[in-house]
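Subject: Interface between my chains keeps coming out wrong

I've been trying for a while to get a sensible model of this assembly. When I model each chain on its own everything looks fine, but I need the whole thing in one frame so I can look at the contacts. Pasting all components below, labels as-is. Any help appreciated, I'm running out of ideas.
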Amino acid sequence: MARIRGGRRLASSSKMTDKPISGSARQILKQLQKTKHGEHNIVIYPDVSTLNEVMVSHYRESLEERNELALLVSHYQTIDAVRQLLREKGRINVSKYESEGSLVILDAAKAYQSSEGVYALMALINLLLKRVENLGKSGMFGMADMASFFLYKRIEQLMSYELSLPSVWDGMKLRSFCLYHESDFMNLTEEERTAIVDHHYRYISIEPVMGASGRSTHIDNN
Amino acid sequence: MQEGVIHSSSGPVLQVIVVDDEPDIVFIIKKSLQAKYRYLRVDSFTNPRMALEYFRQNYAKGREINHDGDDNSNFSKAAAPPPTIVVISDVRMPGISGFDLAKAVKQLNQDAKVFLMTAFEIDRQEFSKALFPAKIEGYLQKPVTAKQLAALIQQHVNSHGENKRGEEAGK
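Reply #2:
Try treating it as a single job with all components included. I did that and got this:
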């Protein structure tokens, strides 16, 4: 079982403590299916396994049913690990989509923390939006993990970047999701969290799939 | 020092703490070390916060080494010289990164030997900036092989022996 907390354009910090709407992974996917081009959303995930469960299915839907160009900016998994995941769990023809240019997988630290910083990624997104037209795609879908800002302690840059983006990509065939691991997100102050959540169109907080985590223990000695 | 012997009559000479948010990785590293070094004490964590708290409670400078808790190894505490502590941690972990963990560990006990491992590109310049002012002993590229681990452990077992001989000679 996984749970989802969702809502449109939260306006106050009190909304962040709303009771989550419970649901299975399939129900989470149904929430993602409702998203439309123009939305700039935020997803808080509890662990990588749970995120993968949702992510893999939605990338398949994006590429194979929605005919979108898909961008994935990964932090906790290498590009090769993501490829393998999409291929094996998602049964997605990764090499075909990558070679035709409709699937782009990037390492978040390189995408966000290079010397050109976030501007290089924004330039890439603009290029990819042009490619959407050239390839006859319906639009673009992207998920980007923001964890590299926490790794390099660039919280000021994270805030400045997030707050510089619109909640709605006006007139753009783009729906995007900023991903935050819950443990990273909780490192922000309440004010920062509220500001970030409030600056997105839709807010989704996923609760762990039972038995999927196991990532918070001291493994026994000997 | 003879290979495979990580335990002197007065207690363990080397203790290893492995931290990675991927349970499979810590399991493999731990099993690999214990297969080669029968008496090696290895503590492993998938949560870096818990690892840091454990380190603070047990290995912070000025504290007596504590073998309580879930330790099943029956090491003798009597007159034991301080063991060499080796921390092997992943870099990209949620909540507390390997950089944060390394800095905190060094602050608590600057004698601890810290190695960071990553499956991503090792950018020494960027990593040094992120670690500043702390300095660590080295980096390991994932997947880490049993041979690499053995070499790393052996190096510190040997240096522990040399330090001990040096201390005894100075008496």
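Reply #3:
Confirming on my end. Chain A touches chain B at residues 47-48, 75-76, 78, 81, 107, 109, 113, 147, 150-153, 181-184, 186-187, 214-222 (CB under 8 Å).
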